[in-house]
């Protein structure tokens, strides 16, 4: 049994997996063309931005697309377009990237944290229902990791209470639910094109809607309150949250390549999920795909880690051991949004009011979650099974060395505390 890399042994893998994001000559040519055009920004007809909006609309089958500077900007625009007022409540999942909630807070709204379904890591319909109040102005469903939330149940609740759904599709471009793209199943869909997302220009986002009445307002809110195609006067209070032409041009090249990537990542994820589930204590998420998930966005591959199967080796040590073996996994400690200092610590100068409806599953999941793929800044899911087998090899190696790792960890813990004593 070879020594773990964490304690000085040879790592399972020294070659890198695929990088993320990916690019080729198409992005290079697109950038040069924008540079030479001298039209680098602004909202123009026949611009890269407008072409990207058309291409995204065709791809998603949605009539209105406005490209914006980030996913967070898109969420703020969506909330403002729906008329969010200070003190209004918005139901958000307790486990998501913090921007889902801070977009609400930055407009003076109150995020209300509802619990997730531990099988999919997306907003649980039952918890959403009990989170509603007479102040609820919207529900934000997050398709976390690329897995669509249960839009059948969430839409039924939204319809019953006449509350709009914003879909946070920052991680789910390409995902479909019953054959329809995420982002087109609610009132407004918001995408992100930040560095780790399914297509990227470093930063960027898009806001999409089937609703004609919201479309003009959304387009105006990102452009100083100017309705599209006009100059002054300004009937809306707007921001400048525009995307540059360089970003739009890169994103067009990225979008053209995306389906190919999604298919490759699907093969990688299916392979890895099956392999990892053979190791005691590791459980891929979801354990089996709901048939209504007609395409998974494959932003990441998530699995839960049960320390009991690993002689109580803490999850941080397990993740560090995987990294040492040459496997890129998420580094940060995961906490539910409701535990973020801005929401949990009233003494924080930036404290923002929030309400917790339920977060038990979110808290338990965060404590056991391991993320592979783009969530860890890696394009690994694009790799072939022969390469990905190293992930299982590394996890098996850690499993086989678990008792020793446990003892090493103990002695390290002791040496860490002793200097202070
Ligand atoms: C990335 C992300 C956002 C924010 O998008 P930015 O482009 O970084 O502002 C919001 N929600 C989720 C779920 C995300 O993953």
The side-by-side strand order for the widest beta sheet comes to 1-11-10-7-6-2-3-15
CATH topology of the largest domain: Aspartate Aminotransferase, domain 2
| Helical stretch tally | 13
Secondary-structure-based class equals alpha/beta
Q: Give average pLDDT, whole number.
A: 95
Q: Mind telling me the CATH class of the largest domain?
A: Alpha Beta
Distance between the termini: 36 Å
- Low-confidence residue ranges: 417-421
CATH superfamily of the largest domain: Type I PLP-dependent aspartate aminotransferase-like (Major domain)
Order of helices and strands: HHEHEHEEEHEHEEEEEHHEEEHHEHEHH
Strands, total number: 16
CATH architecture assignment name of the largest domain: 3-Layer(aba) Sandwich
Q: What are the bound molecules?
A: pyridoxal-5'-phosphate
Beta-strand percentage range? 15-25%
3D architecture notes:
By secondary structure, the chain is an alpha/beta fold. The protein has 2 domains: 232 residues, 3-Layer(aba) Sandwich (Aspartate Aminotransferase, domain 2), CATH 3.40.640; 157 residues, Aspartate Aminotransferase, domain 1. It has 13 helices and 16 strands. The strands form 4 sheets. It has an 8-stranded mixed sheet with strand order 1-11-10-7-6-2-3-15, with helices on both faces. Helix 6 links the parallel strand 6 and strand 7. The longest helix is centred in the middle third of the chain and has 32 residues. The relative contact order is 0.17. The C terminus is likely disordered. The structure holds pyridoxal-5'-phosphate (PLP). Pyridoxal-5'-phosphate binds next to helix 3 and helix 4.
